[in-house]
Automatic annotation (TrEMBL), chains A, B:
<feature type="region of interest" description="Disordered">
    <location>
        <begin position="175"/>
        <end position="202"/>
    </location>
</feature>
<dbReference type="InterPro" id="IPR013780">
    <property type="entry name" value="Glyco_hydro_b"/>
</dbReference>
<dbReference type="InterPro" id="IPR011013">
    <property type="entry name" value="Gal_mutarotase_sf_dom"/>
</dbReference>
<dbReference type="Pfam" id="PF01055">
    <property type="entry name" value="Glyco_hydro_31_2nd"/>
</dbReference>
<dbReference type="Pfam" id="PF17137">
    <property type="entry name" value="DUF5110"/>
</dbReference>
<comment type="similarity">
    <text>Belongs to the glycosyl hydrolase 31 family.</text>
</comment>
<feature type="compositionally biased region" description="Basic and acidic residues">
    <location>
        <begin position="562"/>
        <end position="577"/>
    </location>
</feature>
<feature type="domain" description="Glycosyl hydrolase family 31 C-terminal">
    <location>
        <begin position="591"/>
        <end position="660"/>
    </location>
</feature>
<dbReference type="InterPro" id="IPR025887">
    <property type="entry name" value="Glyco_hydro_31_N_dom"/>
</dbReference>
<dbReference type="GO" id="GO:0005975">
    <property type="term" value="P:carbohydrate metabolic process"/>
</dbReference>
<dbReference type="Pfam" id="PF13802">
    <property type="entry name" value="Gal_mutarotas_2"/>
</dbReference>
<dbReference type="GO" id="GO:0004553">
    <property type="term" value="F:hydrolase activity, hydrolyzing O-glycosyl compounds"/>
</dbReference>
<keyword id="KW-0378">Hydrolase</keyword>
<dbReference type="GO" id="GO:0030246">
    <property type="term" value="F:carbohydrate binding"/>
</dbReference>
<feature type="region of interest" description="Disordered">
    <location>
        <begin position="562"/>
        <end position="584"/>
    </location>
</feature>
<dbReference type="Pfam" id="PF21365">
    <property type="entry name" value="Glyco_hydro_31_3rd"/>
</dbReference>
<dbReference type="InterPro" id="IPR033403">
    <property type="entry name" value="DUF5110"/>
</dbReference>
Amino acid sequence: MNNPMNRHDRKPLWLIAVVVFSLAFPLQAGSPVGDSRDLKLVEKWEKVANGVFRTVVGNHDGEMHYSDLAAASPKIETLNRLPDVPISKALKSASFRLLADGKVLVRIPTEPGEKIYGYGLQFDNTMKSGQIVELKVDHFKKGGGATHAPVPFYISSKGYGVLFNTAKYIKIHNQVGSRKDSKHNPEEVDRNPPADEKQAGPWLALPPGDAVEAFIHGKGLEMVGFTGTSFQDIVARYNLFSGGGAMPPLWGLGFWHRTPAKYSAEQTAAEIAEFDQHRIPLDVIGLEPGWQSKSYPCTYEWQKKRFPDPGKFAKQLLDDGIRLNLWVNPYISKHSRIYEKMKPLSGSHLVWLGIVPDYTLPEARQLLVDQHKEDHFDIGISGYKIDECDGYDFWLWPDYATFPSGTSAEVMRQTYGMQLQSLMHKELFVKNNQRTYSQVRASNGAASSYPFVIYSDSYGHNQYVTGLSSASLSGILWCPEIRSARNEREWINRMHTVCFSPLAQLNAWASKTKPWSYKNATDAVRNTIELRMQLLPYLYTAFANYNQQGIPPVRSMLLETGEGKDQSKEQERKLDGETDPYADGFHQKITEDNSLYMFGPDILVAPFLNNSTKRQVQLPAGNWYDFYTGKLLGNGNKITITAKQFNDLPPLLVKEGALIPMLTKSVMRTKDIQGAAIEIRHYGKKDGTCQLYEDDGQSYDFEKGAYTLRTFALESGQLKQKIVKKGAKPLYGDVSLRQMTK
Amino acid sequence: MNNPMNRHDRKPLWLIAVVVFSLAFPLQAGSPVGDSRDLKLVEKWEKVANGVFRTVVGNHDGEMHYSDLAAASPKIETLNRLPDVPISKALKSASFRLLADGKVLVRIPTEPGEKIYGYGLQFDNTMKSGQIVELKVDHFKKGGGATHAPVPFYISSKGYGVLFNTAKYIKIHNQVGSRKDSKHNPEEVDRNPPADEKQAGPWLALPPGDAVEAFIHGKGLEMVGFTGTSFQDIVARYNLFSGGGAMPPLWGLGFWHRTPAKYSAEQTAAEIAEFDQHRIPLDVIGLEPGWQSKSYPCTYEWQKKRFPDPGKFAKQLLDDGIRLNLWVNPYISKHSRIYEKMKPLSGSHLVWLGIVPDYTLPEARQLLVDQHKEDHFDIGISGYKIDECDGYDFWLWPDYATFPSGTSAEVMRQTYGMQLQSLMHKELFVKNNQRTYSQVRASNGAASSYPFVIYSDSYGHNQYVTGLSSASLSGILWCPEIRSARNEREWINRMHTVCFSPLAQLNAWASKTKPWSYKNATDAVRNTIELRMQLLPYLYTAFANYNQQGIPPVRSMLLETGEGKDQSKEQERKLDGETDPYADGFHQKITEDNSLYMFGPDILVAPFLNNSTKRQVQLPAGNWYDFYTGKLLGNGNKITITAKQFNDLPPLLVKEGALIPMLTKSVMRTKDIQGAAIEIRHYGKKDGTCQLYEDDGQSYDFEKGAYTLRTFALESGQLKQKIVKKGAKPLYGDVSLRQMTK
């Protein structure tokens, strides 16, 4: 309880009652389940850490678990500093059946009104009650479960989460379906009654189900259950179980730009110069496929006609503070020098006629890593954009492809993005003590500790924004990159969204749109990017919190803990004493609105979608202030905001009492942050606190304690600094207070 | 060879060369396959009958085969009267693999340019090359394989067909995917070459595959291969293997109308009177859910408030020549008298809170049949509309539901429609020597001998028409019923389509549209229905041909055998002698145009879609004539036709030399056909032949020979009649010739 970054400390809650209930829970292990006679109760939930429980039904030996692929081991110590919330009633009531046709079914009962959220990067919504999801890596479908990151993890409004810890395809009925022997079925209703007959209620096309039921083809299934005091707490525990959140290098949080597929070194340098001319901050240049001698499939070798001296080119850019990121796809060309050795280590099928390496094999990993180190890392390449590891069915290998390790085609598909993240992160970057911040098209369960951000082909603006919310529920990072816009206004609006996301990238080379393409929008675009640069101290600290505490830096309103609201109701509950912690212990008022999201702990982003300049915002409880003026905007009410009111800057609302540490002035490169002055903006009337994290910005020395953490508290108008840990050289210069609310 | 209904007799073709090749075929059983080292050659194809071959890979014992569910045994004798076409090269080269993760894969190689067609009722297209289909009963999806009748049967442009004879879900890559060790892969191409580098060809997002590869979850798989001399011949053999085509009662081919869900006996009688007033022919009235005491789920018992004396009501209608068809769905209400006994014979999950009987159990079948016989059949009910046996995932039982027989949920889903057809057809109607013509929402493989027509929720007019083509490739019947129209013209056009389909039904009660609703269209509608009635002798004979020879009565242009075209080219081929019957023996010029279809052997329907009144028609080879005027319209060229040209009657084109037997005058009920005069219309200049089939129109006595078959041949302007078989009383009166082409 002595880590000041632990936001959970603020809410111990109803722990005593919980213990009582836990002991009194009446179900016996292995017995048939009351409301589903065909099923057996899950025998045993092993406690992994506080609020984390694991079980296996059937025989899941030898199967791949997402947690095996995590970048780091579970942060058990951190978990055990969190409240010891007992297993939930639902998990204790979970049951299963091994079916004769080779399926494993698990059932986790739900209560009336219970809501289910999650399942990874979803573009349609975050709430999945009444839906069936088929979780499969596939970039094509929007909804139904198939997506870039179909994470088999859900959270329930009753205060628990479940990870189906298998890398197989899984299909999940979320409160869809009625068992014949259930005691919770609604009354049967005639759909066509005679006029004089009364019915028990309206006829429903989809009678509400009373469970989450999931199945895979296999002999067994591992599940990991999570409990917590809020959605944020449950998700944080899931992330901590997954090794914690990713920690990007500081430069990764600057502005990114990708150049056209066939650009040369000269053209790239000229484009960087244009950024400077237009005074647009820039930290990363992404090279698209044509940097390679062959692409689709790939060689990973430099196309010397375009990049005659890649080492010199990379160094010139690095000297200027610009990092290079390289586009790759996983399929290897005959013309690559690693092709011959990789061929026997690859699967039965080709993708775009390139071989598909089996990266569950250490030899295959080593081949790729050695080549990448020599050709890329050693000249200063900062990371990759791993494309095409999601695919349609007809682009990837089929579900019956075979791989030399014996790994099945479907497990390979579900995990390929993670395997690529794993080998690049662990064997190229961590091993050489350099952080990367990279991009990937596919990810999955227990992936939160990989510093890879998912991106994709163009989606609608509202889908991009929904993705920011849904990603945060499943330990993944999402980049709503800009490809194009239909008009100037949309260009500004999309720039707002991407600059207030985990990775601020312009990827508009195909549409040839540049930050200054819309002349009248150039200032708004520049101001937006500069604002992101100014907020880097705030954002970098939020990432440190993600890394150490598992709290997503950009997140769904579902993960709001309600710090801003009046806590008296919760106090009353606590003082009353709880008799059923399962039914009533989860004190969260859920704000389910995917058109809003939180950027760090205190800033609410209410984006104008598409080309709109006006919108309504249903404010959560508590006072909310205009980021720019410090004026009170409302409290729990519905307000209308306009682009004009924010001078075309991002529509940001700040919590009561918030302290927001930011640079007093923007910088053109993150390297210029060194020694820059910080102002801590204070909003509202109440006192507040904030943290400020510093380290070297690029190595993994912070894991050995080489970081500095300060807390700032406002007490009676005075800013009090406390140094929690001093392990690194100072990153920033002077710190001053700025009172925003007059 | 002595059955005159056998159209195949006209084309013996290249048989001698085939035998030579068959003996010389070099592959050895069980050996690894040349172009796919991971696979084993399929060991043995057992010859079932001429052109029908069966094999099993792995162990498929105890699994359900669609052929086990067929209404009748394979017509081996009929098959053996067809040319003895040997197994195809593709089938002999088929290979397989049992995968470690419990899948069975089969691979059937294809050649460059080979095209794949089929997979049941598909609304997007008939050609499936370059597509992946997941065959699953589901009424929601359009394309991708999920459909009301996802029949795992395809035909290849290289002259063979394959039935994957399993009732499991199956996923099939149709020339999608490239194996690493294939010798047929295209050359790798760089997608982003420097300007001065030449490429082998254009970069392709989807390199052409060289096989059909299919898999299921299981330990083995049965396949049935078909060869033939044309697409029509292959499909006919598939239908004969499935027991032959369905033989509807004559009344089933009359006009059908469905009344609103909550109509009473009185209201129904009044609606029939309205048909008579408007002089609209009518044979069948369909009662919708409200005829039952409870529906969704169902009791199957009469709602006495609406139908106080069902027996009397049914008899009154029958006396007038009107049959009743009853809507049902398979899910049984607590209020049904068979509920208690059925409950233990039902599955683990409910649908709309009704139990789901396991009709693989004889006791369950008997319970339903006994109730249906007593309450329905014995009072003269003619058949059923079996709704909701297709469903979305979230309407039906889940894939992990269990059933008391041990039948898996997925097999139950794939076959439920067939099981319901089976028990009603065999145990209610055949057993009592009454034919039914009924409707069903789901069917599947080897179902051609069931007299059930698939229908569905509203589709676009072009999808309805495409369904007519695709259904005919897989032994199923499809009804493009009319629900509504956006305007008068669309109403007429849709009426044309449904009257030239296997079942002419108006199902527009929800939209309250009646044949006379569009006042200015009433004559066109009446004339169209009357034309169908006049063509009953022609259509009924086509169904007899379906029943006995397997040739679909309404069919895709792919099934055109090209009788109309100049045969000299084919003669030349034959005289030349063939050296590779596989490569060149399949003499069909494929007309792939799903906007056209054949109605019986000689009438081409070129429907005006939606509200159009004009369209282009690419005519197949041979002369084609205007049905109404006998004028020549074209030969192999593209023509434009207009609704005006056909006086708003259906756009029908007739083959050169065709003889079309039809009533001289329409009738209001099919019962009035008895003794009606026949005119045989002759089109074009060449002599031709036709057949005319007669039986009692309602019993199964025809199976014991109680039918009469005449052929008519035009020789030098004179109609010559030949009685091929005389086994039944005459149905029609005098026969006369009408020369249509002057």
